[in-house]
Amino acid sequence: VNITHYIFCVFRTYVMSSPPSSNDINDPANQAAAGAALALATTELEYRVELLNKMVASCYDKCAARPFKEGSLSVGENSCVDRCCAKYWQVVAIVGQLLGAQK
């Protein structure tokens, strides 16, 4: 994943819904909004990276046999990782829905 590209895409979604005119670019209010959108995109990216890292660590610790016998995961380990990741994202979605409902 190209992080710079991801931040740009999220930034563009929040800020650049319509092309700015030269007056819009120089407007301090628009510059502040663009800065806030970039900060939001950066925070969202950091959250997603942290979430992915936690999932990888959790599922790897649960599913990978130690000591390592082979250079790649076995079929059983792959299945375990697939199930673990699916469950992890389901829980993240449920927690997100619950937190969204509280607002």
From TrEMBL:
Q: Where in the cell is it found?
A: Mitochondrion inner membrane
Spell out the Pfam families in the cross-references. Answer: zf-Tim10_DDP
Q: Which GO terms describe its molecular function?
A: metal ion binding
Keyword field? Chaperone, Disulfide bond, Membrane, Metal-binding, Mitochondrion, Mitochondrion inner membrane, Protein transport, Translocation, Transport, Zinc
Record-linked InterPro entries: Tim10-like, Tim10-like_dom_sf
Question: Could you tell me which residue ranges the Tim10-like domain spans?
Answer: 41-98
Biological process (GO) annotations held by this record are:
protein insertion into mitochondrial inner membrane; protein transport
Q: Give the membrane topology, semicolon-separated if more than one.
A: Peripheral membrane protein
This entry carries the following GO cellular component terms, namely:
mitochondrial inner membrane
Q: What is known of its domains?
A: The twin CX3C motif contains 4 conserved Cys residues that form 2 disulfide bonds in the mitochondrial intermembrane space.
- How is the quaternary structure described? Heterohexamer.
Family under the similarity heading: Belongs to the small Tim family.
Protein purpose: Mitochondrial intermembrane chaperone that participates in the import and insertion of some multi-pass transmembrane proteins into the mitochondrial inner membrane. Also required for the transfer of beta-barrel precursors from the TOM complex to the sorting and assembly machinery (SAM complex) of the outer membrane. Acts as a chaperone-like protein that protects the hydrophobic precursors from aggregation and guide them through the mitochondrial intermembrane space.
Q: What is this protein called?
A: Mitochondrial import inner membrane translocase subunit
Species name: Dunaliella tertiolecta (Green alga)
